Amino acid sequence: RPDDRMSLALRHAVLASIMGLRNGLHYGVKIRAPHSLVMKFLFSFNKPVKENIIAIIKMSFAHARNLGVFVLIYKAILGALRVLQLGSR
């Protein structure tokens, strides 16, 4: 039935968006933290260690947030288009 397929597609779109947000946050921290660590200690060696660590944490969380929100929006748009396509049939 079309209604069942639309509700299933909508549920899938919401879950995919949430999982995309979670995965984007995880991957963003996983990739950015080591990169920030190396770059800070290569180019900011004259600053205090505490200041460098705080900057690394801030950059990692900002990168993770940006990546997570991008994936959330992307998956939400894909899901909305899929639901609209099913609705027009």
Protein architecture, described:
The structure is a single chain. It contains two helices and no strands. With 89 residues, it is mainly alpha-helical. The protein starts with a helix and ends with a helix. The mean pLDDT is 90.
Furnish the topology, listing elements before pairings:
Elements: H1 2-43, H2 49-87
Proportion in β-strands: under 5%
Mean pLDDT: 90
Indicate the overall shape: rod-shaped
Helical content (DSSP H or I, runs of 4+)? over 70%
Annotation, overall tally of beta strands: 0
- Count of separate DSSP helical elements: 2
Largest sheet composition: none
Query: Span between N and C termini?
Result: 11 Å
> What is the H/E string?
HH
Q: pLDDT below 50 for ≥5 consecutive residues: which ranges?
A: none
Short summary:
This protein is mostly helical and about 90 residues long.
What labels would you give this structure?
89 residues, mainly alpha
